[in-house]
Amino acid sequence: GFKCGIVGLPNVGKSTLFNALTRTAAAQAANYPFCTIEPNTGEVAVPDSRLKKIAEVTKSKEIIPTRISFVDIAGLVRGASKGEGLGNQFLANIREVDAIVHVLRCFEDDDITHVEGRIDPVADAETVETELMLADLESLERRIVQIRKRATGKEKEALTILPMMEQALALLQDGKPVRMLLDGIAHEDLVILQGLNLLTSHPVLYVCNVSEAEAATGNEHTAAVEKMASAQGARTVIISAAIESEVAQLPDEDAKEFLDALGLEEPGLDKLIRAGYELLHLITYFTAGPKETRAWTIQKGTKAPGAAGVIHTDFERGFIRAQTIAYNDYVTLGGEVAAKEAGKARDEGKEYVVQDGDVMLFKFNT
Ligand code: GDP
């Protein structure tokens, strides 16, 4: 599955947020038996209002959302790249994730110590980013010596990865994160970049943790973070971890009332989960029948056989074609039969790139 790693300085609200996520997941667990929760990993359902609409027109018995994981990565302090604090464990954990959710303290509270003695989320973000860049710089400088030698010897693998390594190194030496290479990167290059196992090549989402009173509006600190994020082409979500941990314990109706009173339309966690999903360049397709309506996760650009493979490897191996109905057609026309009659059910082959919201039925050889 796809994983978002939660990072940030100590005392910014990471655990509070993570616990709210896992409590939400625990509450869901009864309905979704395959949800496993490890100590520092929580798997949560991706909220998607389309599921209910598809299930209604299909008259499905059950709704099964798709899922994504969050990992609580504790231990980042100034000096982590040099092995301070839980440095090495931290660096190992962070290499395993696909994207980074960077929590920043934007709440004032004199009772909660700030490790640097002041509330300045933009400076905090730089502290964390600097540690990650230093760790990447060190690891690349060490590895590139060998690769340059092997490339001079015309070794194929070295020749393939060296250009990407050189580009990444140049950015880091310039004090910039490797994720700047991600924008518009070709798929082959992305695979090479991911293979380099760097920390700053992961896409990042900033989470501003604010007090309950400022959850709907944000504050001067969140404005500063938003400015910094937009300069980097990154996204920001404003959340109150304190609110989220309360909401996660309430039954649905009470949670709605509680959020209404605070001027919030939905739980911040829903926003966070969706933003994490987008950050990972993931999209959803659906399968629908009398038994269940179900959402499936694929990476943008996946072709029909690959999408079928998410359900079962046999579906991919024996793929013949896929009956495909766009979400809007499926719902507005009233389901599969009506969509077929209206000529809106397409037969797609091996080269079809699956689109977000496609309702699919795979034909395959066993
Ligand atoms: P971590 O070290 O980043 O995991 O931070 P924690 O989640 O353990 O939070 C550190 C402390 O800050 C705890 O005492 C939390 O209750 C408190 N805290 C977290 N979020 C908020 C918030 O939004 N407002 C206030 N006032 N305190 C918070």
Automatic annotation (TrEMBL):
SUPFAM superfamilies named in the record: P-loop containing nucleoside triphosphate hydrolases, TGS-like
UniProt key word ATP-binding: yes
Cofactor: Mg(2+)
GO CC entries: cytoplasm
Family matches, as InterPro entries: ATPase_YchF/OLA1, Beta-grasp_dom_sf, G_OBG, GTP-bd, P-loop_NTPase, TGS, TGS-like, TGS-like_dom_sf
Pfam families: MMR_HSR1, YchF-GTPase_C
Highest taxon above the source species: Bacteria
Binding-site positions, ATP: N11, V12, G13, K14, S15, T16
Record keyword Nucleus present: no
Domain TGS, first and last residues per copy: 281-364
Keywords: ATP-binding, Magnesium, Metal-binding, Nucleotide-binding
Span of domain OBG-type G: 2-259
GO molecular-function terms, A-Z: ATP binding; ATP hydrolysis activity; GTP binding; metal ion binding; ribosomal large subunit binding
Protein purpose: ATPase that binds to both the 70S ribosome and the 50S ribosomal subunit in a nucleotide-independent manner.
Family note: Belongs to the TRAFAC class OBG-HflX-like GTPase superfamily. OBG GTPase family. YchF/OLA1 subfamily.
UniProt name for this protein: Ribosome-binding ATPase YchF
Species this protein is from: Pseudaminobacter salicylatoxidans
